[in-house]
Description:
Shape of chain B: elongated
Shape of chain A: globular
Number of helices of chain A: 6
Distance between the termini of chain A: 63 Å
Mean pLDDT of chain B: 94
Helix content of chain A: 25-40%
Largest sheet of chain A: 9 strands, mixed
Number of helices of chain B: 8
Radius of gyration of chain A: 23 Å
Radius of gyration of chain B: 22 Å
Oligomer: heterodimer
Largest sheet of chain B: 7 strands, parallel
Order of helices and strands of chain A: EEEEEHEHEHEHEEEEHEEEH
Strand content of chain A: 25-35%
Strand content of chain B: 25-35%
Mean pLDDT of chain A: 92
Amino acid sequence: MNIVVCIKQVPNTNEVKLDPVKGTLIREGVPSIINPDDKAGLEAALRLKDSTGAHVTVLSMGPPQADAVLREALAMGADEAILVTDRAFGGADTLATSTTIAAAIKTLKFDMIITGRQAIDGDTAQVGPQIAEHLGIPNISYAEDIKVEGDCVTVKRQYEDRYHIIKVKMPCLITALSELNEPRYMTPGGIFDAYRNAEVKVITRKDLDIDDSSIGLKGSPTRVCKTFTKSLKAAGQLVNLDPQESADYMLEKLKEKFII
Amino acid sequence: MDIQEYKGVYIFIQQVDNKIANVSFELLGKAKELAKDMETEVTAVLFGYNVSGLCDELASYGADKIIMVDDKALETYSTEPYAYSMYNVIKKYKPAVVLYGATAIGRDLAPRVSARVKTGLTADCTKLEVATDGTKNLMMTRPAFGGNIMATILCPEHRPQMATVRPGVMQKVKPVDGAKVPVDKYDLEIPAECKNVEIVDVIKKVSTKMDIQDAKILVSGGRGMGCPENFKLLKDLADALGGTISSSRACVDAGWVEKDIQVGQTGKTVRPNLYIACGISGAIQHLAGMEESDVIIAINKDENAPIFEVADYGIVGDVTKIIPIFTEEIKKVMAAKNA
């Protein structure tokens, strides 16, 4: 079985801070990580490798520095790594991104594709289902459990108030939730191999059979017209009282507002 | 593509077990405003099996027209039959705008449809407006970088303009009793190939708790509560006030409370009448989920905590000391009221 896992290099948004004076994002010094949902997807693939001997390929689209997350994936146990990178792919929205990744995946052998549900920098959750659409295969989103039996996969699919247990014939695409598992650490031997010996294969524009009008900025129907930092509403009153006075103060305010 | 051919604001109506999701009513409410600015109509798109009984409810919440596809294949949500149906609705009716709730269904269906139609899709919007520059384009605003920045996105040259919208953000209209609108029953033949997955089982999560998005009063705890046992203090206060408890992400990550009560960017957006933030510092991701609450009270040890920037009433102090006293005071008031 061949599994392709799509991973994205993202800034650790929990550590992104706002410049209090300029109101802009401070990106310097913010570490890059494998997107958490993607890492859970990778772990799920590696467990299938452990149990069935599946071949696991990791693929990332991004700038050349995304090499780092691919090597981390190799050090965790992936067999092969592919970086999809080209200036021509820049400025892509989710539609152009998914078109590009689908074209790259078409050059590979696959029975199962795993993506994370969503990336923590964009939070769109779109690229996974869109890749499946371009490839004409079923997708099952929000996977909390994945089991393989013969040429079928059974997935525990999460909804707000229920689960569906869904059985699908491969090839298919699954989007993984970070609740799926606890990803393993890189092994010392894996790190050594990944950073010293392993090769990250690079796929560029010329390797893909796609139209220029469907990639990069040109292939992106959406346009960001402005970005801004949220203006918070004006702060109210701040008091520093002893516990009893604090309670009385709140009580008074709730009465004023007719809440109690 | 002649974008002038595309008209109308369409709402994907999410129904599960023949019950319409709240977010669909919220979207109908918002769509009414957008349609007014675009000088067009609101169309509810209803998929399911034996769902014609839901039409009057959609009319009462603001739909001007309903398109219904009623088929056994649409009884339980499954990606392909729904994507096939929506794709065909778009091809036949040419809407200018299609909105979906940003739910586990909407966030699966909408991207699949967008890739089939080859149009743009903006995820998890928190604000929708119509451009006043003459284009009447839909301006879709959403948080990015975990809520650290907001981006306004356009889809100028493709139609329909599609977006998923966060539940709990838009306001539904007051339902108009007895409203009736035309229903267009679209007899779409859903091919057998669409059934490309098998739903072996449906397991409902048993929850006796109130959904925090429906709560009028939320008592919310953060890392400053110190330990999971202290959530009992919040539960007591919530019970006294007739509210329910919620939490920040830190407490979910620490395993103190369940994920379904998490407020914020990766949790739920809430706008209760009263939000009491207890020991919550107020990371931007948290504020994004609760700052629209009518009245916000915050209690925190650190007078510089960002939560105070959105609080109407801020109290600097030890939350574990203040809350029990406050709960007793509330109980006294309530007892006097009921006497």
